Amino acid sequence: MKRREFIVGIGGSAIAWPIAARAQQSERMRRIGVLMGFAESDPEGQRYIKAFLQGLQDLGWAPGRNVQIEYRWGGSDPGRIQTYATELVGLKPDVILGQSALTLVPLQQATHTIPIVFMQVIDPVESGFVASMARPTGNLTGFAPFEASVTTKWLEMLKEISPSVIQVAVILNPDQAPNVVMLRAIEAAAVSLGMRLTVAGVHDAADIERAINARMRESNDGLIVLPNPIANNHRELIVTLAAKHRLPAVYPFRYFVAVGGLMSYGADIAANIGRRLHILIAF
């Protein structure tokens, strides 16, 4: 079975497999490595995996029968994710599924030959992961849930729900290229909307608390949280602090709203994993 046939298969049911590929499923057990930027106990991370397994099942792949899946849950700890990336590459899987940019960087560093599919990377071209959407090149491909331009919508939503908002605090991980790309887009949009930005780079829960608590003495403030594993894994803390200080806030994913967040605007990643993760290049 060719690598191209296998990697297309895990992408989703929207892509048909060659008949020959289906006939060859029984030749040997395939192996997939999965590196998640969630804690294993996180219900959203488990929702992603459930959708992924359903997509595999729809295509005739069953764990233990014709495919073996190695999971690693790194949370938002870069050191742990680095260790797990090295472990997964050492297992020599047929393909690796990386959940976010935080998982993609160490995977990309660890192998240039094993195909890597990402499921949640914002603007992978501008972020420097692939050369182009039409021809990503190298061993990376995947699904981009939205472009950096969506940040304009987030600012507009804040202004609509709270017209007095002038100052907007942006919570991001400055070490992640997609967050930097999105920040540039927010900065450009803020000028046209007459809004000012305060940038808060965070690496852990303590940074998040300091960043949001600093807004308690400010009036006419709003909050935007950029998508990254640190914010995602500490979403309940962010939502609680925003509510405590009465900060109108917009979040990138619905699961922030599910724990009490005010509003979100973005893609449903789990819904796309099983059926709409289009593979962009042939390996």
Structural class: alpha/beta
Low-pLDDT parts are 1-25, 276-283
Report the top-level CATH class of the largest domain: Alpha Beta
User: DSSP helix count?
Assistant: 12
Instruction: Say which CATH homologous superfamily of the largest domain is assigned.
Output: Response regulator
Order of helices and strands: HHEHEHEHEEHEHEHEHHEHEH
Integer tally of domains: 2
Walk me through this protein's architecture.
The protein has 12 helices and 10 strands. It is of the alpha/beta class and 283 residues long. It folds into 2 domains: 3-145 and 269-273, 3-Layer(aba) Sandwich (Rossmann fold), CATH 3.40.50.2300; 148-264, Response regulator (Rossmann fold, 3-Layer(aba) Sandwich). Strand 3, helix 5 and strand 4 form a beta-alpha-beta unit. The chain is elongated. The two termini are 12 Å apart.
Summed up:
With about 280 residues, the chain is an alpha/beta fold. About 40% of the residues lie in helices and about 15% in strands. The protein has twelve helices and ten strands.
Keywords for this structure?
283 residues, alpha/beta, Rossmann fold, 2 domains, five-stranded parallel β-sheet, 12 helices, 10 strands, 16% strand, disordered N terminus, disordered C terminus
Set down the secondary structure blueprint:
Layout: H1 3-11, H2 19-23, E1 30-36, H3 43-58, E2 67-73, H4 78-90, E3 95-98, H5 101-110, E4 116-118, E5 140-142, H6 151-161, E6 167-172, H7 177-193, E7 196-201, H8 205-213, E8 221-225, H9 229-233, H10 235-244, E9 249-251, H11 254-258, E10 263-264, H12 269-273
Parallel strand pairs: 1-2, 1-3, 3-4, 4-5, 6-7, 6-8, 8-9, 9-10
Helix pairs in contact: 4-5, 6-7, 8-10
